[in-house]
Fold:
Amino acid sequence: METIHQEFQVAYRYPVYFTEGVFESSNPVLVSTICADDDAENSGPHKLLCVLDEGVCQSRPELPQQVEAYCRAHPDLTLVRPPMMVPGGESVKNSSDYVELVQEAISEFGLCRHSYIVVAGGGALLDMVGYAAATAHRGVRLIRLPTTVLAQNDSGVGVKNSINAFGKKNFLGTFVPPHAVINDFDFLHSLSDRDWRSGMAEAVKVALIKDAAFFEFLEQHAKALANREPAPMRKLIHRCAELHLKHIGTAGDPFEKGSSRPLDFGHWSAHKLEQITQFRLRHGEAVAIGIALDTTYSRLTGMLPEADWRRTLDLLEALGFALYVPELDGPLSRCDPDSLLHGLTEFREHLGGRMTVMLLAAIGRGVETHYLEDEIIRNCIAELASAATAAGRRAV
Amino acid sequence: METIHQEFQVAYRYPVYFTEGVFESSNPVLVSTICADDDAENSGPHKLLCVLDEGVCQSRPELPQQVEAYCRAHPDLTLVRPPMMVPGGESVKNSSDYVELVQEAISEFGLCRHSYIVVAGGGALLDMVGYAAATAHRGVRLIRLPTTVLAQNDSGVGVKNSINAFGKKNFLGTFVPPHAVINDFDFLHSLSDRDWRSGMAEAVKVALIKDAAFFEFLEQHAKALANREPAPMRKLIHRCAELHLKHIGTAGDPFEKGSSRPLDFGHWSAHKLEQITQFRLRHGEAVAIGIALDTTYSRLTGMLPEADWRRTLDLLEALGFALYVPELDGPLSRCDPDSLLHGLTEFREHLGGRMTVMLLAAIGRGVETHYLEDEIIRNCIAELASAATAAGRRAV
Structure:
């Protein structure tokens, strides 16, 4: 009997807003996003479950009340229960407990596919709640309010969610775009210096592989960025988010079916470094080291001019990143799960297909390779170690 | 700062094959599907995890060995472990235990997004394994080998997966198309008469809402179908799968973002009937009653000519379906979770948006409505009860 060939396309659209004071009653962004499609036949009130990062609420204890007041002020929104408070940070992804907590609330309060989950927090919390929202009823609408630099310019604007499982980072998850993202700059004021800085690593990353002018902007404002001046940080976040979204939207593989993954430049080692430092390193701190490592690799193999390599390491250091941790000097074997090199094995296994790693040909121009040599990686680590010794600087 | 509007499309393609003896070494369908995209840079051997329905293996005890022999005969396939045996039937969806078992095997044997999970079983097992495959690494390739009429002509060829949670059917799941579907007619020989019959309800459903000629075909061959003649059953499965796929591919909402759900004709009550009969009714048996109910509703409200109503009930009975169970006569309240009418509440909540139910204007022509009257539903039940008494026939 004749084979049936099924073929269709699914269109995705979502806005990324930039605002301040998202939960001030006079701020229209959230309510107008939720009511955007209302018409005579489909209208509010819309059910809304809110999940907040406990860490964020520690520095902004008025936040839960603000959320409740906002929903009271807008009769088209029905907050189904007081905001759920959930810890932030990687630990929230380490079991399915919190995912089930969110799914249970979705069930208990009768949310449907046209209801809304509004989550405010760092990247890890957004990942976890995103996974719960994507799987309950096969997908409840998710509005992300990223509260860190990293989440506002990178993970929080993308199409992925996840939790960790079987000791593997992001082992479980889905590709499901959010309904909307609202970047509220106010959330950044209460970040620690470490978290403020950490998120800038992804901006350096995307500038290096895609946008030399943006890299120059970062160089020019490195000191101001390190000193927490708001204006250049807003620019950094907007441009980084824009480049990230542009890649997802136009590079032809938004749900990563192929083997190419340019946005993961510097990440094969970063994911592993987070793990072998028992998450003492923040994701962005690990990415900064990963960028330094792969940029050094690019130089040592003759792909990247020395001047570009120097500028890259200088920028990372000017932003305040330390580019060496003792764990880099552990065993180097692709088969040893405790080894940095095992990161390459896990990277390929998680992404699938042919091993593909991004390197640099110039600032603003990434190139992909399918082979990395262990011996050269060893030399890269030695370079980073001696540079750190020379500078008297080591990472946390 | 300027809002960024993200917008992209994702293209999906998958084949649905019809074959016999899929695991005979000489049958090329499975191996050629897996190796279809091989080229100089991406080639085998391809890792493959196989999950088999224990019930299927009871009637075909040689199946696991056949799978192993098939993979040995094709060096491009690496079966990572002997086939996993998992119970079939709805119970496999009632906790996350089996999902975790499959995910753990994916982790343990190092499968990646380009590896394959091959699952042979009924609709419930396909749903469960599909959910595990869709979430591990954010999606491992899934090849479905549906072994029942219902799975071959309906659920197994579609884009959904799920498990039950919080007492709600299909509460957790995703929309993720399979890599391929292989309908092996041989699996149907060992079905019980109940399972053979049960799957035909979805064919009646899709014929009623979309294809009068197919309905006539079913009428003409009702006796042969009930007597398990293979030729008309092959035709039934092919046409039903084709209509199902055509709807998903061309009706503009493959991942069910809106409120319209024509393929769920007869299903608001069917899902609930399965539950309130403690799954004594097979899905298809419940769908047959659900079709009878909504067809009767269409007639009682003057939408559907009496002759079309009569033909529909006659066809369902000729195929061997009983159209009444005592549970239909339970309490009727939309707020009582034990009531059939609560099925309407759950149906809307699961699908989201405005309550939308398909009714019939004619054989081959469904129309949607947004209101059902409880009193008329009561009358429909009374009609089915008296028809059953008159015929001396009751469902299991």
Q: What stands out?
A: Residues 165 and 242 of chain B are 31 Å apart (CA to CA). Chain B touches chain A through 72 residues (CB under 8 Å).
